[in-house]
Amino acid sequence: MSNWDDVKKNVGEKAATLVEDGMHIGLGTGSTAKWVIESLSKRVKEGLKIKAIATSKESERLALAGGIELLDPCVVTELDLCIDGADELAPDMSMIKGRGGALWREKIVATMAREMIVIIDETKLVKKLGEKAKLPVEVSFFGKEATLKEIEALGFKGAFRKEGVALYKTDAANAIIDLDTLLSEDLRDQHKKLIGVPGVIETGLFFDLAKRAVVGYRDGRVEVV
């Protein structure tokens, strides 16, 4: 049986093989995405020519250290591929994302890409979103308590994410509210209601973006589905 670090490494290395020469790609954030970046860095040293947008400062740091050329996200409108993780993945390829704190940037980059590949271990596979993960919602610090009040008025329960004793701050200088409750079967409607609250920047509900998933298992298997 592999340990989970080995599973993530296997998934990251497999996902990196799906990147082709000349591609412009989106680099996700998280412990599995780190292995994608490291694997791609090795391929770049061997002659692979790619350019990338990183979804977080940490992924940007890893990419630059590995010799991956970065694109300016302010001018790019389209990517060939985005590779990123998920907190949960349902059978219809819908996802909850945001535990790594980069959900707003991740959704922008995923939307730019012609294809998104999700990289996960088997524990992230669920029959229904909300089985295990909380729903992160990225909100502006300005008026954040009023925003939380409006979200709670919709029937949700949640709290601001903390880092130690301080409120967590995303790379985009926003706050995150982690919601305990998914209210209905119609998650698209739920996203629509949340995104309509003033101060809400983005939710961790991702629909119609992922095309394939690279899934790692404790027994050492890696599947592309």
Can you walk me through this structure?
It is a single chain. The protein is α/β, with parallel strands linked by helices and 225 residues long. It is 29% helix and 25% strand. The protein is built from six helices and 16 strands. It has helices at 4-16, 31-45, 57-65, 103-112, 144-153, 187-195; strands at 24-27, 51-54, 69-70, 81-84, 88-89, 95-96, 116-121, 135-139, 158-160, 162-163, 166-167, 175-179, 200-203, 205-206, 210-216, 222-224. Strands 3-2-1-4-7-15-16 form a seven-stranded mixed sheet, sandwiched between helices. Strand 1 (24-27), helix 2 and strand 2 form a beta-alpha-beta unit. Helix 1 packs across helix 2 (31-45) and helix 2 packs parallel to helix 3 (57-65). The chain is globular, with a radius of gyration of 17 Å.
Quick overview:
The chain has helices at 4-16, 31-45, 57-65, 103-112, 144-153, 187-195, and strands spanning 24-27, 51-54, 69-70, 81-84, 88-89, 95-96, 116-121, 135-139, 158-160, 162-163, 166-167, 175-179, 200-203, 205-206, 210-216, 222-224. The protein is an alpha/beta fold and 225 residues long.
**Largest sheet composition:** 7 strands, mixed
Rg (CA only): 17 Å
Number of strands: 16
Shape: globular
β content, as a range? 25-35%
Structural class: alpha/beta
Along the chain, the helix and strand elements come as HEHEHEEEEHEEHEEEEHEEEE
| Percent in helix | 25-40%
- Major β-sheet strand ordering: 3-2-1-4-7-15-16
Q: Whole-Å distance between the termini? A: 22 Å
Tally of helical segments: 6
Low-confidence stretches: none
Question: What do the pLDDT scores average to?
Answer: 95
